[in-house]
Amino acid sequence: MLVTKSIYFEKKAMATVEVSCKYCKSIKVIKNGYSSIADRQVQRYRCQSCKKSFQLDYTNPAYKSDTADKIVAMTLNGSGVRDIRRVLGVGFKTIQNTLKKKE
Ligand SMILES: [Zn+2]
Question: Which end of the chain is more exposed for a tag (fewer CB within 10 A), N or C?
Fold first, then answer.
């Protein structure tokens, strides 16, 4: 999955925060450092129940977990790269990489 690819554990702050896990909805979530996306730092969180890490705001649409599925679905429906870029707001490289991975 695209999401797990760019996770770096630079700082491990064990502070609890009022965030619920986007996967299992658990509130046992700790701060889990930052990830850099398009030259800005985004707070990452880690769920202690399901052990998945995530961030609240995916500023780059390429990092949204369902974007890859949409790219594949649109391709299967006959959409060209240009259509996908316009509709999903992702770059050409993202589309290429996604389709390569799904092959
Ligand atoms: Zn969880």
Answer: C
Tally of structural domains, the chain: 2
Q: Which amino acid is at 63?
A: Y
Residues 20 and 66 in one domain: no
- Cα(95) to ligand 1 centroid in Å equals 28
pLDDT of residue 81: 92
CA of 54 to the centre of ligand 1 (A): 9
Q: What is the pLDDT of residue 20?
A: 84
Instruction: Quote the ligand 1 centre to 32 CA distance (angstroms).
Output: 13
Please list the residues that pair with 35 across neighbouring strands: 42
From the list 23, 21, 70, 40, the residue with the least C-alpha distance to 32 is 21
